[in-house]
Specification:
Layout (H helix, E strand, L loop, with lengths): L1 E6 L2 E3 L5 E9 L6 E7 L6 E6 L5 E3 L7 E6 L4 E6 L8 E11 L2 E6 L3 E5 L2
Parallel strand pairs: 2-11
Antiparallel strand pairs: 1-3, 3-8, 4-5, 4-9, 5-6, 7-8, 9-10, 9-11
């Protein structure tokens, strides 16, 4: 089992920055995929950024150049540095771990943290 707790959300003005953190507990391997998703009201949950566990990262086109994902395998933490925020970034942000074990893919989710970008 994996438990995930997000922190760092809040209200920020357009153009501002926020850092989200995710603290994980449980059995997580370095090759597991860890990522951030977000869901705005009335929208589907979407991938924001992921650390793919193989040295590569993935970013949504809408956040490339503005957001940076980082991961510390020893501390089981993951962060998302968000710069140049716009109102379109307003959403609940979720920490995710995807594990593939014995042919089965399992997703674990945190409860989410609200990010609101508004003047």
């Amino acid at each position: 089992q994996v438990q995930l707790v997000e922190s760092g959300g809040g209200l920020v003005q357009p153009g501002g920055s926020l850092r989200l953190d995710c603290l994980a507990a449980g059995s997580i391997f370095n090759h597991d995929i860890m990522g951030w998703y977000r869901q705005a009201p009335g929208e589907q949950r979407e991938l924001v950024a992921s650390d793919n566990g193989d040295g590569s990262t993935t970013y949504a086109d809408s956040v490339k150049g503005r957001f940076t994902i980082s991961r510390n395998n020893a501390k089981l933490t993951m962060s998302l540095q968000m710069n140049s925020l716009s109102p379109e970034d307003t959403a609940v942000y979720y920490c995710n771990v995807n594990q593939f074990r014995w042919g089965v893919s399992t997703n674990y989710w945190g409860r989410g943290t609200q990010v609101t970008v508004s003047s």
